[in-house]
Design goal:
Blueprint: H1 8-52, H2 68-80, E1 94-96, E2 115-122, E3 134-141, H3 149-161
Antiparallel strand pairs: 1-2, 2-3
């Protein structure tokens, strides 16, 4: 028998080519997942900022002039401006946290005020390595409803004078400075 190795390089090339293309597609899909996650997180963050700045009377709680529904609608519009459907992310996963829906919050619940979105991404672009498994991802932006400048000023004044009534500019010759209640 004659030892014939014709065609051996073709077989090696095919195996190497399939492996290299699969690796490139895996890296490409992973980078798309990262980019879509970053863009979704930015859109969620911006929607949370819009949601938290909808108070028209600058109070720490939802006042009678501004409604929760109006703030949620404006946040949803801000989220939808980013056209995440280009990345295959639906706007239906966008929601407002349960803590945001209550008017009176405890001190710890203020931190959980904001918005979040849930979305799915395919792990494998081709579907041959991981099957049709999907990543279930959540982007949260809980910025917390912060007290307003008026509330901060009254707290600082009370801490200095022990009485909020004495803190008008005519009776006190000081400047109140606080770097965030």
């Amino acid at each position: 028998m004659k030892n014939n190795q014709k065609g051996q390089s073709t077989i090696e090339f095919i195996f190497s080519f399939v492996f290299a293309v699969s690796f490139i597609l895996m890296v490409f899909n992973t980078s798309l997942n990262y980019v879509s996650g970053y863009v979704t997180h930015y859109a969620t963050y911006m929607a949370s900022r819009v949601f938290l700045t909808q108070s028209s009377n600058f109070s720490a709680d939802w006042g009678p002039g501004d409604t929760f529904v109006q703030a949620e609608r404006q946040a949803r519009l801000a989220f939808e401006k980013y056209s995440l459907d280009v990345f295959g992310i639906q706007n239906s996963g966008f929601n407002v946290s349960e803590a945001s829906r209550r008017n009176s919050l405890s001190a710890g619940e203020y931190l959980m005020v904001g918005v979040f979105t849930k979305f799915d991404r395919k792990i494998d672009l081709v579907g041959q390595i991981t099957g049709q498994a999907k990543l279930e991802l959540i982007s949260e932006s809980f910025l917390g409803r912060e007290p307003t400048r008026g509330v901060c000023a009254s707290r600082v004044c009370k801490a200095i004078t022990y009485d909020i009534g004495e803190c008008d500019s005519a009776s006190m010759d000081i400047t109140l400075f606080d770097d965030g209640c």
